[in-house]
Design a protein that fits this description.
Layout lengths: L7 H4 L1 E5 L12 H14 L3 E3 L12 H15 L4 E5 L5 H13 L1 E2 L2 E2 L2 E5 L8 H14 L4 E5 L1 H4 L5 H13 L5 E6 L4 H13 L6 E4 L5 H6 L4 E4 L2 H16 L3 H11 L1 H5 L7 H10 L19 H13 L4
Parallel strand pairs: 1-2, 1-10, 2-3, 3-6, 6-7, 7-8, 8-9, 9-10
Antiparallel strand pairs: 4-5
Helix pairs in contact: 2-3, 2-10, 4-5, 5-7, 7-8, 10-11, 13-14
Length: 319
């Protein structure tokens, strides 16, 4: 069994929020998923996140989610971290998901943690968010990456609530909350949170960007990396960018940021993961045309939109 060894240092780098490839009959295509994972491993990612937003998890059954996660574990075989999406907008379901994904295994391999998004639609207060995440954390020692994406969920996990959660861990001499995926698009917001965490001795919480356009700026203020969508296309370049930054070669990091940053616009001009799956199909990755299959209510780009995406990728050197 793998050890849950998620530390600030081991979280640093590029994580890919995996798409879920679908076969022509609509089932999960595990062969295409394995091919994609092999590409990511070869590119040098730090970790993989199956069953997140990009994985169309909202339309996967629990059995399909388990299949995606165990397939990922089996292909990775402990070579990088695997953190599985387990969030829900009902606390009881989130706890059940947390326990379920923590118990999954592929041979000797288990997940290293779970990604928990803020509950959506029912719009809890900050006290409700605190109670929700504490209930999940109290259910199991499985490490948690908090995920704040108010543009999708309609609720914002404020910095002071993140600080409360970290303080609860510190009071118990525990480390259940290991990272935050922050997708508000505000570097100042992340700076304020980093300052607040340092003030309470909670700087071991890793801050990971949920916005692909802010990776280098987040690193510059003391952040730790990214859980990325664009890394499906540019994982190698993003991984090299983090390494260049860590080596003090800012010029190289900036050059790689300039190269990869256009993808942050290209792959989000329609709802994620529609553009990135289409880009993978255009590039012949993840089973080629298999990559551009979706589950309703997501649907393919129009012919004109596909042509526009292809033009953008060609102009920026990604096709």
């Amino acid at each position: 069994m793998t050890l849950h060894r998620l530390t600030k240092a081991s979280l640093r780098g590029v994580w890919t929020a995996l798409i879920t490839p679908f076969a022509v009959d609509g089932s999960v295509d595990t062969n295409a998923l394995r091919a994609l994972i092999r590409e990511q491993l070869a590119a040098g990612v730090t970790g993989l996140v199956p069953c997140g937003t990009t994985g169309e998890t909202a339309t996967l059954s629990l059995a399909e989610q388990d299949l995606v996660i165990t397939t990922t574990l089996d292909e990775v075989k402990g070579r990088v971290h695997v953190v599985a999406g387990a969030g829900a907008n009902d606390t009881r379901t989130a706890v059940a998901n947390h326990l379920r994904v923590g118990a999954l295994r592929a041979g000797d391999y288990t997940v290293d943690g779970a990604l928990h998004v803020t509950p959506w639609y029912n719009k809890p207060t900050q006290d409700g968010l605190f109670a929700h995440f504490m209930a999940v954390a109290d259910s199991s020692p499985l490490p948690i990456i908090l995920y704040n994406v108010p543009g999708r969920t309609g609720v914002d996990l404020l910095p002071e609530t993140v600080v409360r959660l970290v303080q609860a861990d510190l009071a118990r001499d525990a480390r259940r909350f290991v990272a935050l995926k922050e997708a508000t698009g505000s570097v100042q917001r992340s700076q304020d949170l980093i300052n607040a965490l340092h003030a309470i001795g909670g700087q071991d919480l890793a801050i990971l960007s949920g916005d692909d356009g802010h990776i280098l700026s987040l690193l510059a203020i003391g952040g730790d990396g990214v859980i990325s969508v664009t890394s499906h296309v540019c994982a190698r370049e993003l991984a090299l960018m983090v390494k260049a930054f860590d080596a003090g070669d800012l010029a190289a990091a900036q050059a790689l940021s300039r190269k990869t940053s256009p993808l942050a616009n290209h792959l989000f001009f329609r709802s994620n993961p529609i553009p990135v799956k289409t880009a993978l199909a255009l590039r012949g990755q993840a089973g080629g045309t298999i990559a551009a299959r979706f589950r309703l209510p997501l649907c393919p780009l129009s012919d004109a939109e596909t042509a526009e995406l292809q033009k953008r990728l060609l102009q920026s050197g990604w096709l």
